[in-house]
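Troubleshooting log. The previous structure file for this entry was overwritten by mistake, so regenerating from the original sequence record. Sequence copied from the archived sheet and checked twice against the printout by T.R.
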Amino acid sequence: MGAFQELMAIRGVNPPKDEEVHITGSDPIYKTPFKLGETTAQVLAACGVAANDLWELKTGNRQKVSVSVEAAAGGLDEKNNSLAKDNNGQYQRIEGSESMKHMVRMTQPWETADKKWFLPHTNLKHLEERVLKVLECESTVESIQNAISKRNAQELEDSIANANACGGICNTEEEWLKHPQGSYLSSVPVVEIDRLFDSAKESLPDNNDMPLSGIRVLDLTRILAGPVCGLTLAELGADVLMVTAEKLPQVNEFVRDTSHGKRSCFLDLSKDEDASKLKELVKEADIIIDGYRPDRLAAYGFGVEDLAKLRPGLIHVSINCFGSGGPFGSRAGWDQVAQAVTGMCVKQGEAIGSNKPELTPVFACDYVCGRLGAFGAMLALKRRAENGGFYSIQVSLCQAAMLLQRQGYVNNFEDVLGKISEKTYEEYQVFENDTSYGDLKVLGPVLKLSETPCKWVRKTPKLGEHEAKW
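Regenerated output below.
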């Protein structure tokens, strides 16, 4: 079953007519066996259908949905498709931070003492420190490689998890599907939608500018899948307010590339006054995107039951690495960890002729996972309008990785450019002037709707630029 058909089965009503959805192009775009562009395009098309369901509730009409595979692939590589104007008036690629480059060098599969491969994740200073403490090594490639070479894979994975650090053994796909966590995820839908509590029906806002016009979204996420979920909803017209604390570490390039069309404010939930402000925001929200470690928000008084009391009819989108349950359900993780444990790294390494597991060229799990979260949120909005209810949406990086692997593979990727064409970039480019990042030229929304084109209705904000209010 293709990704689009799998998501339409979750949608669970009459499938859209053939002429409603049009996907053009094919993989490969990147030097990888995975159908990254096609899968992403199919997930975006499913988002278009879900948005169409809401549009039909509002207007009685449906729109044409179209997605370019090449453009969808380009959307997985925002950092290379974000340009800034230099002093000579020329647009140049924005160089990534040195800390990010260091993380990339460190966060790779390394061979263990028992001849397996283990990927430690060293993004964000506090998480890197936890990994280094377990490994008893320094923050260099040579030191981390040497330390891992002296440890057995399973013992190391357990020790990393016990330290609330992040990492994972590089399994094959077959090993993962037999693993208790992989087996659990295979038993549940790629997007889990559960009606947890009763509440009254809620009509969609009386605003027909775009499918999600008038819908309020609290985006309590960072780096990278959660912000992509919020970005997807913003492109369809939602009012998305990012909420983070000024003290929390960020990756600037990811903040820039996933903040288009949103507003951004600072709230520190460890402070009573700020927690009270968030509660007031929740009371008027439709969707909350939760990217914290599972159950972490509950410690601040924002667990699912707390949220339901504050806002009956809220839609809670949970985005994490390992999914809604299973033995790894409480563990934190990242795109690279999901690639490692599910078999993607092994497959990538074998396909490109490497003598070790390798990461794919782009963070596809993050982007696919974020789009899946938006898809689930829109399905829940329709169900709330028709039947009422407080809904829980569960998506994960590992489920996104497994969905990618279910699409099969391509072989003829050796000679591809590894990026989208200039023609496609120019078709989708968006110019944003006078942002806090300068004058930008970026790849714009990829999903196309025939009557209400996806767009960013607000200028890309500086982190914390706005007040904490609707």
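The two ends are 41 Å apart (CA to CA). Archived copy saved in two places this time.
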